[in-house]
Amino acid sequence: MNKRRFFSLTTLWYAAFAAAMSFVIPIIFIELNITDIQRMGIILFGINVLYALLSGLIVGVKTQPLVYLIFFPILFLIGVHFFFASFAYYFAVVYAIFAFLACGMVRR
Question: Where does the sequence pass through the membrane (predicted)?
């Protein structure tokens, strides 16, 4: 993969959506005074899993570089420090696995 393709608007969009899922969504749930259990259930098991699967499918269908799938787990690891308990670090591995599996299912 060349530098020009990596430093593109597409890369910026993947990073922006990953940052929104890692930082903005938890802040919204905190401001809505949702309990910790509901927040973890909805965000960790619902929204983030869907985002990981969707990003994997998009990267696979468009045959984009696999490095785009790493943005979300890395930013999620940073966000866990601020918003979730320490066990949530393991979810970054799960999200990466889901994204790569979804990508592999549709890639030719």
Answer: 12-34, 40-59, 66-83, 89-106
pLDDT band at 6 (very low <50, low <70, confident <90, very high): low
Rounded Cα–Cα distance for residues 92 and 74 (Å): 7
Cβ partners under 8 Å of residue 30, min gap 6: 39, 83
Cα separation, 101 vs 47, in Å, equals 17
User: Which pTM value belongs to this model?
Assistant: 0.89
Contact 75, 97 (CB under 8 A): no
Written as six digits, the tokens of 38 are 């509901």
CA distance 69 to 80: 18
